[in-house]
UniProtKB/TrEMBL annotation:
Protein name, entry field: Orotidine-5'-phosphate decarboxylase
Keyword Lyase: yes
Catalytic activity: orotidine 5'-phosphate + H(+) = UMP + CO2
Family per similarity comment: Belongs to the OMP decarboxylase family. Type 2 subfamily.
Pathway entry: Pyrimidine metabolism; UMP biosynthesis via de novo pathway; UMP from orotate: step 2/2
GO biological process: 'de novo' pyrimidine nucleobase biosynthetic process; 'de novo' UMP biosynthetic process
This protein's UniProt keywords: Decarboxylase, Lyase, Pyrimidine biosynthesis
EC class: lyase
Amino acid sequence: MSVTPVPFGARLAQAISTHGHLCVGIDPHPGLLQAWGLPDDAEGLRRFSSVLLGAAEGRAAAIKPQVALYERHGSRGLAVLEELLEQAREAGVLSVADAKRGDIGSTMAGYAQAWLGEDSPLRADSVTLSPYLGVGALMPALELAEQTGRGVWVLGLTSNPEGQRVQHAGGPDSAAGRVVADVAAWNREHGDVPLGSVGLVVGATTGSAAKDLGIDLGAGRPPLLTPGYGAQGATAADLRRDFAGVWDQVLVPASRSLAHNGPSGVVQCVVEAARDLAA
Ligand SMILES: O=C(O)c1cc(=O)[nH]c(=O)n1[C@@H]1O[C@H](COP(=O)(O)O)[C@@H](O)[C@H]1O
């Protein structure tokens, strides 16, 4: 007998209400590995990942490993990522695989199976997706996520300044606004209580952009992943101001700012960031 999985949105809402809004980003940049005294190889990745996951347990709502920084080590790096995702599952820590995948529908199914399939070695609780080929092209991932109780995060307004030229195009009928509207429609139809399972990436550095473009981030209650806090300059006060009214939807990732004081400083950085975001 098959059991209906608990939707990702419900699991995430529970994690945020228990642990707060922080998501521990795990970005094993070569420079950080070096600063930590670790080799730039699979063993270095393994030790870096283990310290960040350990610090996240019981202190943060989720982890977000950056896939490219594992992928650059080929199959050995991906094997470390598989181990990390498995350890997170065992520890009960939600995972966001930051893979930023997106393809035409027929081959999107392959990416969906890789990150969201029940039997995939790389399965995560959720994965980041790029909607440049159209939100409709992402359907295989949205559908598989729903079947397996997993989630996705669709890039909406990204944290980097270069994104604006494409995402703001169209003004009141902006490209980003269309992505947000498609996500809202999916969540309304497939469940948006307490949160939808299809989230949006909206950078913490984007200021009033959503408001200026007439975008309603509350529509369909998408979880909102807000990179840009910490190393990219956004503060907790910026987040509170720009996400007022939708704060319960927000998951705040931070990567470099949690790792910059070396392995012995990670727990303190995580505790301080979690407290900063709870204030
Ligand atoms: O999807 C993401 O996570 C993401 C989207 C975005 O708009 N901006 C952004 O910085 N990110 C990711 O968020 C993380 C930010 O890292 P820090 O700036 O070190 O906190 C990196 O892994 C980025 O790839």
